Amino acid sequence: MTDALHLTLQHTDGPYAVATVTGDVDLHTAPTLRSGALDLIQQGHRHLILDMRGVQFCDSAGLSALIRIWHGAKDAGGSLALAAVSGRLMRMLNLTGMDSLLPVHPTADDALSGSRPTADA
């Protein structure tokens, strides 16, 4: 585990944003992920995709951060999707039932093309 976590904005298109997460998501770094992602949502990117390909480790604090981000997106009338999720995180999502709320896609491009609602964006 490391103390460094980076959230890098990769793509924006109006209310849509793709951000890459790099580093371990744990007790020390989950607040950075949560605040960075919620800032993006507050800036108007209410449909957020987190590309998790750079995440090697995610614990329960990281899962809690994802749940809070999901709530923040929903409160803003948006959505949260994940891309390139590790097997460990996918198991955690499955065990907690969050996989039914958080769409998971193989890549950020897949998530972006599959996340656009048919109604008002």
From TrEMBL:
- Superkingdom of the source? Bacteria
Domain STAS, residue spans: 18-115
Taxonomic lineage: Bacteria, Bacillati, Actinomycetota, Actinomycetes, Kitasatosporales
Q: What is this protein called?
A: Anti-sigma factor antagonist
> Which Pfam families does the UniProt record give?
STAS
For this chain, the family text in UniProt reads: Belongs to the anti-sigma-factor antagonist family.
